[in-house]
Amino acid sequence: MTINLPLQAPSAAGLIWQVTRNEQAKTPAEREAILADPGFGNHFTDHMVDICWSEKGGWHRPRVSPYGPISLDPAAAVLHYAQEIFEGMKAYRHADGSIHTFRPYENAARMQRSARRMALPELPSEIFIESLQRIIAVDADWVPSAPETSLYLRPFMFAKEAFLGVRPAKKVNYYVIASPAGAYFAGGVEPVNIWLSTQYARAGKGGTGAAKTGGNYASSLLPQAEAYEKGCQQVAFLDDEGNLEELGGMNIVLVKRDGTLVTPESDSILEGITRDSILQLATDRGHVVERRAVPLDEWRSGAASGEIVGAFACGTAAVVVPIGRLLGTDFEIVHAGTEASALALALRQELTDIQYGRIEDRHGWLTRLDA
Ligand SMILES: *Cc1c(COP(=O)(O)O)cnc(C)c1O
Q1: Residue range 45-69, pLDDT digits in tens
Q2: Alpha-carbon separation of residue 139 from 9, 27, 66, 103, 204 (angstroms)
Q3: 251 CA distance to ligand 1 centroid (A)?
Q4: Are 123 and 217 in a shared domain?
Q5: Which residue among 117, 202, 250, 263 has the greatest number of ligand 1 atoms within 8 angstroms of its CB, and so is best to mutate?
């Protein structure tokens, strides 16, 4: 069954969406069974969004269709040259049943920056926001309501053109899929141990580190496996000069004794919206925030002298996690201090209180998706 729905309010781009309902959608009972224990990234909703782009036609044919396999030519450029970008965000259900997302214009702008770096077309912000509203319009029942659960939204874009020559693709597709997410730390937020990779880097100077692109993740998988072998859950990377960069998929913030927060500024890290928001909340509380190059040695000597009392990692999926240990090949930093953990957890609480509508959204960070 296909219904052509004009937009309630025509977007700037004036798109007419084609909506095809999934006849094999999960029953309410099946859906509730999944939502009772969704985990992360295991289950997907009944529908997906896709929009085509071509050099000649620009963005066209926006669709909502049943979730399912994508048919690709074996020569599709993405499969060979990794021309791909993505975003990650969440839809939160508030106590009154309404559904909101967090700072989506920041994700839209970041996806445009990623697109520029990866020679992909930029998706206008209005279409990006509309694509999120469209998937929620059909899959709203998939947004869970248990505490600290959400519907993870995964917009992504890749080179679909079947061509083995090396140049930016002239045919590209943009999609949104959605996956219910459980409370990341069911038993309370536990500090994580981090392995410092010195043999490998996730990105280099002038590389693609600032773009949210699959290749950066591909290059982090081997060091991530090494981290597991060392008994750590995550891996941290340095730049060529020995400055701290970030984890495979989360940013890092160091906490000084006087409450100052220090975080790496670098052209080769992915600038997290969670980090930016947490640092804004910390600034509101009177903390000094420093965004600058952070030599690893500063962390090591600061931890030894007591100048640096802790550290935390942050990103959309896990929100904020205190770092308990940083393990290197020939050294170890242990942050047993409760003070920095308490600060990290207080900032986490405040951020999630805003996201779930439990306190005032004083920065205007929420965008409603279901109306
Ligand atoms: C997505 C991502 C982050 C975190 O960004 P958020 O906007 O906070 O989710 C950090 N590092 C990398 C490499 C990422 O891909």
Answers
A1: 999 999 999 999 999 999 999 999 9
A2: 20, 12, 11, 20, 39
A3: 7
A4: no
A5: 250
Rounded to whole angstroms, how far apart are CA atoms 353 and 222? Answer: 36
Mean pLDDT (whole number) for 119-126: 97
Indicate left, alpha or beta for 121 from its phi (over 0: left) and psi (-120 to 50: alpha). beta
**Confidence label for 186 from pLDDT (cuts 50, 70 and 90):** low
371 within a domain of the structure (yes/no):
no
Ligand 1: residue whose CA is nearest its atom 2: 249
Cα(208)–Cα(54) distance, rounded to whole angstroms?
A: 24
Q: Tell me the HSE value of 56 on the side-chain side, using a 13 A CA sphere.
A: 0
Distance from the Cα of residue 162 to its chain's centroid:
29
From the CB of 249, is ligand 1 less than 6 Å away?
yes
**Co-location of 243 and 337 in the same domain:** yes
Domains identified in the chain, total number: 2
Same domain flag for 164 and 215: no
* Any atom of ligand 1 within 6 Å of the Cβ of 274: yes
Q: What is the mean pLDDT of the chain?
A: 94
C-alpha count within 13 angstroms, C-beta hemisphere, residue 336: 2
What is the amino acid identity at position 105? Y
Q: Which atom of ligand 1 is nearest to the CA of 314?
A: 8
Measured from the Cβ of residue 64, the count of other Cβ atoms closer than 10 Å reads 23
Query: 0.85 exceeded by the pTM?
Result: yes
What is the Å distance from ligand 1's center to 57 Cα?
A: 32
What is the pLDDT at residue 352? 97
Q: Is 192 in the pocket of ligand 1 (CB under 6 A)?
A: no
273 lines ligand 1 (CB under 6 A): yes
Phi and psi torsions of 162, nearest 5°: -85, 100
Domain identity same for 152 and 214: no
